[in-house]
């Protein structure tokens, strides 16, 4: 396939074809996911949990995300690479730019940054300086202490309206896509309809422009209870390649997420 760029995503969005994203942390999985047709590889700060065994994303550093980004870039051929800005790396627009530039130099095509309208100036500063930005709204895990746990966000009408307004403000500031995490399906739909760039949902319902999961979750690497929005794509498969292809197919044909994965 041709290299996936911002233009590719815009074209998929326009023809309402669902966009597929998975987290990825190394070269081997990057080459396999690329081969399976995943459009976006996300070096999530979830690497703190799934690679480092920490109990939140908060301790992850910019150097660590840059290292994994370089590993992914080495294995990837055509997918778009998005890297997370870790907690504490975007206190000001200038600091955000310096840190984001490290991720771009490591091979990312876009950076993802968690939060609402307080990021307006930062997102404008980055995008004016040629660093594409993915927003992240709803359950933003770097805010776990402020939320008092990993809780579904946007359940009241007031919170829902704030999230919709955040998306509009950050789109106007230059964000080119958004991850929406753990919000009611109805709100995922409302945000998606309120803006004119793609939304990538994780526990945000079937009406988002695409979907994302943490690879270790969808490959069922850890036994035990998962978040509601996770589906085990190894079920019925004998290879990891089969599971990743099943994920791509299920997102594309709209069978994932189903009602049981939504809030
Ligand atoms: O860090 C991560 O894996 C993420 C996804 C869950 C969207 O931000
Ligand atoms: Na993240």
TrEMBL record:
<feature type="binding site">
    <location>
        <position position="112"/>
    </location>
    <ligand>
        <name>3-methyl-2-oxobutanoate</name>
    </ligand>
</feature>
<comment type="similarity">
    <text>Belongs to the PanB family.</text>
</comment>
<feature type="active site" description="Proton acceptor">
    <location>
        <position position="181"/>
    </location>
</feature>
<dbReference type="GO" id="GO:0008168">
    <property type="term" value="F:methyltransferase activity"/>
</dbReference>
<keyword id="KW-0808">Transferase</keyword>
<dbReference type="GO" id="GO:0005737">
    <property type="term" value="C:cytoplasm"/>
</dbReference>
<dbReference type="Pfam" id="PF02548">
    <property type="entry name" value="Pantoate_transf"/>
</dbReference>
<dbReference type="GO" id="GO:0032259">
    <property type="term" value="P:methylation"/>
</dbReference>
<dbReference type="GO" id="GO:0015940">
    <property type="term" value="P:pantothenate biosynthetic process"/>
</dbReference>
<keyword id="KW-0489">Methyltransferase</keyword>
<feature type="binding site">
    <location>
        <begin position="45"/>
        <end position="46"/>
    </location>
    <ligand>
        <name>3-methyl-2-oxobutanoate</name>
    </ligand>
</feature>
<keyword id="KW-0460">Magnesium</keyword>
<dbReference type="GO" id="GO:0000287">
    <property type="term" value="F:magnesium ion binding"/>
</dbReference>
<dbReference type="GO" id="GO:0003864">
    <property type="term" value="F:3-methyl-2-oxobutanoate hydroxymethyltransferase activity"/>
</dbReference>
<dbReference type="InterPro" id="IPR040442">
    <property type="entry name" value="Pyrv_kinase-like_dom_sf"/>
</dbReference>
<dbReference type="InterPro" id="IPR015813">
    <property type="entry name" value="Pyrv/PenolPyrv_kinase-like_dom"/>
</dbReference>
<protein>
    <recommendedName>
        <fullName>3-methyl-2-oxobutanoate hydroxymethyltransferase</fullName>
        <ecNumber>2.1.2.11</ecNumber>
    </recommendedName>
</protein>
<comment type="function">
    <text>Catalyzes the reversible reaction in which hydroxymethyl group from 5,10-methylenetetrahydrofolate is transferred onto alpha-ketoisovalerate to form ketopantoate.</text>
</comment>
<feature type="binding site">
    <location>
        <position position="114"/>
    </location>
    <ligand>
        <name>Mg(2+)</name>
    </ligand>
</feature>
<feature type="binding site">
    <location>
        <position position="45"/>
    </location>
    <ligand>
        <name>Mg(2+)</name>
    </ligand>
</feature>
<keyword id="KW-0479">Metal-binding</keyword>
<keyword id="KW-0566">Pantothenate biosynthesis</keyword>
<feature type="binding site">
    <location>
        <position position="84"/>
    </location>
    <ligand>
        <name>3-methyl-2-oxobutanoate</name>
    </ligand>
</feature>
<keyword id="KW-0963">Cytoplasm</keyword>
<comment type="pathway">
    <text>Cofactor biosynthesis; (R)-pantothenate biosynthesis; (R)-pantoate from 3-methyl-2-oxobutanoate: step 1/2.</text>
</comment>
<dbReference type="InterPro" id="IPR003700">
    <property type="entry name" value="Pantoate_hydroxy_MeTrfase"/>
</dbReference>
<feature type="binding site">
    <location>
        <position position="84"/>
    </location>
    <ligand>
        <name>Mg(2+)</name>
    </ligand>
</feature>
<comment type="subunit">
    <text>Homodecamer; pentamer of dimers.</text>
</comment>
């Amino acid at each position: 396939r041709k290299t996936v760029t911002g233009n590719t995503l815009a074209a998929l969005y326009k023809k309402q074809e669902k966009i597929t994203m998975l987290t990825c942390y190394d070269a081997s999985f990057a080459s396999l996911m690329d081969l399976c047709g995943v459009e976006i590889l996300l070096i999530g700060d979830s690497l703190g949990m799934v690679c480092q065994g920490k109990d939140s994303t908060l301790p992850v550093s910019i150097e660590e995300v840059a290292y994994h980004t370089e590993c992914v870039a080495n294995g990837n051929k055509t997918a778009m690479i998005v890297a997370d800005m870790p907690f504490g790396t975007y206190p000001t627009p200038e600091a955000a730019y310096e840190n984001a530039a490290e991720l771009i130099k490591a091979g990312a095509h876009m950076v993802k940054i968690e939060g609402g309208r307080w990021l307006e100036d930062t997102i404008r500063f980055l995008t004016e300086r040629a660093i594409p930005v993915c927003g992240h709204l709803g359950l933003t895990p770097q805010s776990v202490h402020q939320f008092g746990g990993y809780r579904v966000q946007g359940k009241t009408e007031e919170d829902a309206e704030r999230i919709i307004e955040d998306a509009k403000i950050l789109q106007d500031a230059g964000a080119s896509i958004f991850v929406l995490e753990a919000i009611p399906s109805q709100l995922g739909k409302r945000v998606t309809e309120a803006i004119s760039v793609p939304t990538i949902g994780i526990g945000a319902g079937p009406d988002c422009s695409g979907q994302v999961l943490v690879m270790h979750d969808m490959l069922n690497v850890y036994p035990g209870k998962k978040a509601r929005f996770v589906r085990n794509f190894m079920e019925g498969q004998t290879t990891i390649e089969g599971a990743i292809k099943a994920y791509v197919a299920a997102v594309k044909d709209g069978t994932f997420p189903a009602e049981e994965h939504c809030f």
